[in-house]
Amino acid sequence: MSEVQLQDLEAQIEALKSQLTGDMFADMEVRDKIHNLEMKLKGVKPMDSSIDCIGCGS
What we know:
The protein is mainly alpha-helical. Helices cover about 50% and strands about 0% of the residues. The chain has one domain (about 1-58). Helix 1 (about 5-15) runs antiparallel to helix 2.
């Protein structure tokens, strides 16, 4: 992943974090998006490779 792509992912994560309200249920969808972007950023894949990850597409 290029430096520009990494910076773009980090910017998206920060933008989503600014939308958090503190209400766990209201924030669930935003937190899921943050989690998926962080997995892409860190190159994390699901442990069971027989199952495709919907969030990161691995």
